Amino acid sequence: METLGDRSDEYAQLRKLYDTKLLPENPQRSLAFIQQQWTRDWPPPILQMAKNPPPSLLPLSSSVHHSDQITPEVHHEYHEDDDDYDIYNCPYEPPHNYPREWNLVHQVLAHWSPDDTNLPKSGIHQGLCVFDYDKDYDKALHYRILEQPFVVIHDPRVARTAERWHSPGYVEQVVGPNVLHRAEHNVNNHFLYHMPHPPSRRGLRRGRRAAAAQEVVLLDAQGRPAQLQNPNVVPDALRMTYGDWLSKANGTAHHQASPNQEHWYFRLIACGYMGPNGNCDKGSTEALYDELPFFQPLHDDAPNDTQPNGNPNALYIGDPDEQRGIHCRFGMKGVIAENHFDASRNAIAVLLGQRRYILSHPQNCRHLALLPKEHESARHSAVDYTNPDLVRYPEFAHATANEVVLQPGHVLYLPTNWFHYIVSLNLNYQCNTRSGMAEHSSHWAPIHDCGF
Fold first, then answer.
1. 337 beta partners
2. pTM of the full predicted structure?
3. Which of 16, 186, 237, 415 is most buried, judged by most C-beta within 10 A?
């Protein structure tokens, strides 16, 4: 797109080198390459839906606080007349129980701790359909229009980007070896979004002491003080070069990272239409629009080679006019992004490494102990998924979820308000773009009921 992307001579020369000599376009080669990057255990076994949790999944971890008065609740309790479906051969119309969910505490978390970065041999609780880009495009687009979550594999454009990003030294040339980008650091593996509120005008007039005296205690939806179970999940914000981050991330690339050691999270932002000339963020990486053409905000009347009368990006972008840039997050092994929802459609591509996503339908809002909209970490859960305190947050025992492990070349589509909790299973690159809100009653009503 003429008005988006990096128009510098340096970037043009870099792409010319790779596109004509080092990695000329070859979809078959790119698809074969990314499949070689998938772990030998992928696709993992899928734990089937059951009326009651298997005995092996019922006991809680000894680190989980619980109450004898709490009974697990399964959001999609199995019945014989429920629609059954194969996630690798989903029907055109989503089953009425789609996507399957399991009890979050007693099944999903008890079976696979977020602190464990090893894929469990016994399987995972996956309920999302996996669509092949070539064979299942129409089905995937239908699910997107219906605002249902899913995963796309074998998109040759995503594969080509992933193959290029695996080339040694390439990403550093794209982002700039000396450019300082946004990053976060914490003394453990937890990373919670945190946006301090600016002081009010009244506070400025009366001074900090007067403002503090007038401060009120925020309450969550259950009437409790809106406080984090683990206060040490808020990272420090800083700026660093890609090379500095990579040197730190490589320190845990080949062994199990300790949750209580230092972790770093690296970020890239392409402003796009949010900020002409990349002025939405210092050191923005506008080349992301060239690197990820599948995230460009095309319209249905935009001709292209693969779909002359359509829009190949409609699968990932709901409303091109509402796109808010491209954001990439590079995680070192063990990094956890705390559970939250985004009030927009979200398309997420993994280009290197593996990420585990624990997902919950918006109907779980009342069970997730969310921090209220006035809080500096609004929309995020106060509960520590690695050690949930069910005495303090008894409603959390009734939450349900499913999970998926994304590999290079996979794209996850998340509808508006869908909850997600992310674990970096190894060093990884992930990029996402958001494209407007979907006014879908089943996705908005429970969020409004939770005070948002």
1. 191, 422
2. 0.89
3. 415
